[in-house]
Amino acid sequence: MRLCTLVVTTQPAIVDTSTIVVNTNASAIADRQNMTVKSRLLIVDDHEEFRDSARILLEGEGFEVIGAASTGEDAVGQTIRLAPDLVLLDIHLPGMDGFATADQLAALANPPAVVLISSRERGSFGARIGHAPVRGFLAKHELSGESLTSLLA
Predict the structure, then answer these.
(1) Distance CA 109, CA 111 (A)
(2) Contact criterion met (CB below 8 Å) for 90 and 98
(3) 110 near 50, Cβ under 8 Å?
(4) CATH code that applies to domain 5-152
(5) pLDDT band at 5 (very low <50, low <70, confident <90, very high)
(6) Strands of the 113-118 sheet, one edge to the other
(7) Where are the domains of the chain?
(8) What is the arithmetic mean of pLDDT over 80-91?
(9) What is the mean pLDDT of residues 21-44?
């Protein structure tokens, strides 16, 4: 079993998709301390090590991670059951991909906000992201509480 690396640093870093960098600079800490509203979050990714690392990172930045899923079908079921405010949704999933999953989530009676993620850059998906019923897109190496909060604002 391969464990994911969690790196704590005060400098920007380029990392692979199984590494999440936590920036501990003073402004990031101040932003986290001033956060008053916690978003209830569902993480959807087919890589367990990424789900675990994203949970650690985002819980440390004030998000309440209420669940995780590894497929689009499971994401829809858990969204109905758990009613998250936000779904962090990988584009490349086995079976139903992130775009089809986002379409199904948008059709729910109380749809959550959806942010697509991928290890690829936004340009790899052409206009599909712009046409998807989502709040935005983040490359996995850009994931942080601050980046999610800015997409939701």
Answers:
(1) 6
(2) yes
(3) no
(4) 3.40.50.2300
(5) very low
(6) 64-69, 40-44, 86-90, 113-118, 136-139
(7) 5-152
(8) 96
(9) 55
